[in-house]
Design goal:
It is a single chain. Strand 4 and strand 5 form a beta hairpin. Strands 1, 2, 3, 4, 5, 6, 7 and 8 form an eight-stranded mixed beta sheet that branches. The protein is built from two helices and eight strands, in the order βββαβββαββ. The protein has about 160 residues and is mainly beta. It is globular and about 45 Å long. The two termini are about 25 Å apart. Bound molecules: 6-O-methyl guanosine-5'-monophosphate. The site of 6-O-methyl guanosine-5'-monophosphate has 16 residues, from strand 1 and strand 5.
Length: about 160
């Protein structure tokens, strides 16, 4: 099957022993906690998109140079020819306090209290790698939005 890839960003802010997640208020992934991100537009780089989406969804500013690319995730959904190509970033230097927006309700979570039951089902598979500082590539094939048919994750030496 030939897939049409669309590139997305996903940003996680870190502070002390916490991670910032946002509860999605609308659209794809509604009612799930996730990082902040969205589709890369044709006129911008992936880093520009990552900073723009973080700002739009949480009001926080981050410099592109503070965004560390930690993972590359690909998602397919049975019967859908689109492959979501998601570039995951982490940052611990940023400006401003997270605020609720039209898209997200932000909240800091302790690392041992991540709300996996209210997140995408792939997250509890790869979050432990992210939280232990690994770089990785993963592909997840879904049936519907709740069932992972199969997946594969590889740790990387560099991105
Ligand atoms: P918008 O439609 O809001 O961009 N995304 C996923 N994130 C996780 N953790 N798991 C998934 O498993 C995901 N699929 C997509 C990429 C969608 C946002 O949701 C992320 C984007 O940041 C299926 O513009």
């Amino acid at each position: 099957m030939t897939f049409l890839k669309k590139v997305y960003t996903l940003v996680f802010l870190r502070k002390d022993n916490k991670i910032l997640l946002g509860l999605k208020k609308r659209g794809f992934g509604v009612n799930k906690w996730n990082g902040f991100g969205g589709k890369v537009e044709p006129n911008e780089t992936i880093l520009e998109a990552a900073a723009r989406e973080l700002k739009e969804e949480s009001c926080v500013d981050v410099k592109a140079s503070e965004l560390q690319n930690i993972a590359h995730l690909e998602f397919t959904f049975e019967g859908d020819p689109t492959m979501m190509d998601v570039r995951v970033f982490s940052a611990n230097v940023f400006q401003g306090e997270p605020k609720e927006t039209e898209e997200m309700i932000p909240k800091w979570f302790e690392l041992d209290a991540i709300p996996y039951n209210d997140m995408w089902p792939d997250d509890n598979i790869w979050f432990p790698l992210m939280l232990s500082g690994k770089l990785f590539y993963g592909i997840f094939n879904f049936k519907g939005f709740n069932t992972i048919l199969n997946y594969n994750i590889q740790e990387l030496e560099s991105m």
